[in-house]
Automatic annotation (TrEMBL):
InterPro entries: AB_hydrolase_fold, DUF829_TMEM53
A UniProt-annotated Pfam family: DUF829
GO MF terms held by the record: serine hydrolase activity
Protein name per the record: Uncharacterized protein
């Protein structure tokens, strides 16, 4: 990732990468930068996530990217190991209790994040600092459990016949292994929708997206608002799946910055630890 001077990249493992301010840089002030957990979509490459990561880096955040492979998506225990690695890193980081944590999930990244919510709920005392640090969540083209077969097949191939075949196979796979496989997806989905931590939320989607379900997204946002949870849904007319940022970069960034302001994180984006940050959408 091209992060510019004053930043460094740490490869935690094959799934996790941390981009942060170089602490050896003498211009860095003592104020801790907020952390963004970026849950990527299936088959997302580093250069794809670079655009999102650079945006948050320029706004004063450190960024941890979480990438998963297709076979991991199909085996929930593999995803749970990835999520455990994320939590272990945060648990061992002395900065965690002192800074806000934001989440940005893309497509099936919402499912991966849901697995993290399950672990946070099951061990509230152990992960108390992480739970208290979480300040908000942003989702782009997020898909629910029912959308995984469709999303998985669409990501693998553009051939309609092969795509339909893969989708049917996955639907059968989930039916046959409901007690050993599907139950994990459903538990993640339930934790996502439950929003036990009552985190302010922004969900963006495209009406022309063939994968995500606008009705589910809007219904989820409505449920949260009925519980007095700050929840914003933003739709676009003409973007591909996980293509909103590429199609509408200025509106995308403005929507995120407005959300960060609404939930009280504007103070962290005004200055980059003592260095002025320009509000630009150029990546």
């Amino acid at each position: 990732m091209s992060t510019g001077p004053g930043f460094k990249v740490k490869h935690v493992n094959s799934n996790l990468q941390l981009l942060q301010k170089d602490r050896s840089d003498t211009t860095v002030a003592t104020k801790e930068r907020p952390l963004l957990l970026l849950f990527g979509w299936m088959l997302a490459k580093k250069r794809h996530l670079n655009k999102y990561g650079n945006m948050y880096l320029s706004k004063g955040f450190d960024v941890m990217t979480i990438q998963v492979k297709p076979y991991q998506i199909l085996i929930p225990t593999k995803i749970q190991k990835v999520v455990q690695n994320v939590l272990d890193h945060l648990e061992q980081d002395p900065k965690t209790p002192r800074r806000p944590i934001m989440v940005h999930g893309l497509s099936v990244g919402g499912y991966v994040y849901g697995e993290m919510l399950v672990k946070l709920k099951n061990a509230p005392d152990r992960y108390d600092a992480i739970r208290k640090g979480l300040r908000g969540q942003i989702f782009d083209s997020v898909i629910d459990f029912d959308g995984i077969p469709k999303g998985f097949s669409a990501a693998l191939t553009k051939n309609r016949m092969i795509r339909a075949s893969v989708r049917k196979c996955l639907e059968g796979y989930f039916r046959v292994f409901e007690k050993s496989i599907s139950c994990h997806y459903k538990r993640s989905s339930d934790s996502f929708k439950d929003n036990e931590l009552q985190l302010p939320s922004l969900m963006m989607y495209s009406l022309s997206d063939p994968v995500c379900n606008p009705e589910v997204i809007e219904a989820t946002g409505k449920q949260w608002r009925m519980r007095n949870i700050h929840s914003v849904t933003k739709h676009f007319e003409d973007s591909k799946h996980v293509g909103i940022f590429h199609k509408h970069p200025e509106c995308y960034v403005e929507t995120i910055l407005k959300f960060l302001e609404d939930i009280g994180l504007e103070e962290y984006t005004r200055e980059d630890n003592g260095e002025k940050v320009e509000k630009t959408t150029k990546m």
